[in-house]
């Protein structure tokens, strides 16, 4: 868990240095210090440079404007989801990325 985009990058780098790779990143778009769009751009660059492992990044925002959704796509996020993220939505995401089986009900 990170409180801003800069911390998110640091957490991912720290985990990578410990040979741990998150299976999925849920990235809030509106954070202090560095927003989720900028943090995603930095992480994507680090993934391309093999400084961190490739991890799907899902953008989260309460704002569902076309501009926000386009920003997510431009930042090369894997997907965009509107907040609040309900339990069913989270389960669907986990299933979509193969992190839980289709049969999982809880």
Please name the defining characteristics of this protein.
single chain; about 110 residues; alpha/beta; Rossmann fold; three-stranded parallel β-sheet; 4 helices; globular
Question: What would you say this structure looks like, in words?
Answer:
There is one protein chain. The protein is of the alpha/beta class and 106 residues long. The chain has a single domain, classed as 3-Layer(aba) Sandwich (Rossmann fold), CATH 3.40.50.2300. 42% of the residues lie in helices and 12% in strands. It has helices spanning 5-17, 36-48, 66-74, 87-96; strands at residues 25-28, 57-61, 79-82. It has a three-stranded parallel β-sheet with strand order 1-2-3, covered by helices on one side. Strand 2, helix 3 and strand 3 form a beta-alpha-beta unit. The longest helix has 13 residues, at 5-17. The two termini are 22 Å apart.
**Major sheet:** 3 strands, parallel
- Enumerate how many helices there are, as a single number: 4
| Strand-pairing-aware structural class | alpha/beta
Helix content: 40-55%
CATH fold-level assignment: Rossmann fold
CATH structural class: Alpha Beta
Q: Helices and strands, in N-to-C order? A: HEHEHEH
Shape: globular
- Can you tell me the CATH superfamily? Response regulator
Q: From the alpha-carbon coordinates, what is the Rg to the nearest angstrom?
A: 14 Å
- The CATH architecture term is 3-Layer(aba) Sandwich
In angstroms, what separates the terminal alpha carbons?
Answer: 22 Å
Poorly predicted residue ranges: none
Nearest-integer average pLDDT? 89
Biggest sheet strand line-up = 1-2-3
Give the tally of β-strands.
Answer: 3
Number of domains: 1
